[in-house]
Fold this sequence. Notes:
By secondary structure, the chain is mainly alpha-helical. 72% of the residues lie in helices and 4% in strands. α7 packs antiparallel against α12. The chain crosses the membrane at residues 6-23, 35-56, 76-95, 102-121, 127-147, 159-179, 199-224, 231-252, 258-275.
Amino acid sequence: MSNLFWYILLAIIGVVITTYTLYMKKDIYKVSTLMVFFLFAAGGTWIGEFIVLGLFNSYAYKTGVFTDPWAQNLLGHLILNTTLYPAVAIVMVAYSLGYGWISFVTALFAILEYLFIKIGIYEHHWWKYYMTAIAIVIFLLICRYWFSKMNQKPHGLTRAFIFYFVAMVIVHIPAPILLLLGKVHYQIDFVNNYWDNFYLSSTIIIFFYHLIETFLLVIFVCILKNKIWKLAPFILSIVAQSVFAKMNILVLDAGWNLVYTILIYEIFILIFILLEKYSLRSKLNIFE
């Protein structure tokens, strides 16, 4: 069996768990409310793994699809951190599971990690099993804390904080997909010289940019609340992508057109704005 099979299997398990939880809890929470929290949890894992894996090369995914190790890391990251990890977070908060279940899930992830290493589809560099256990416990406790906080104070900075992580997932996800498809890449000399890998340096450049763009997006959409200000993210994205292309930071590959890139990002910004506007309206009036 190919390496990718096992990653896809875990992704399918994550999707099934999420779908089941959304269905079973639909009378308590709106589906949109839980999906927002799903994206919040995914955003947390994305940022966390960007630091641990992207900046410090702690371990490696071996998906078997690409020959480049960082392309494999990027694909493995996208598959697991957009499905399995947030799925577990949704189950934990939706069913109000306690410390016993947190311990069980932590042990389960450690076992999965061990098995993945044994069959050669994942490897540690300086990372250790106990670090995985600590990371899982911290992740689940943070998710539980913020889900509770969303129930108690669903407005102001709490809402903005939640939507920052949601926006990060929505705004950033086109970048690694286009990169893996060979449509675009990003380059800045000092970044490329320090992180001497095509996929890694591209990811670092666009990820840091999206951290900033997402911050501005949340201010314009979630805090200022004026319809005029909601046009600003669209303009910002067009200007930024155009300037990046002009400065040769954004490089278009394989006949790809800048217009396609701009259009994709505009669509995803619109998705976030609509999600922020029409979601988090719980049947329990959790959100104002």
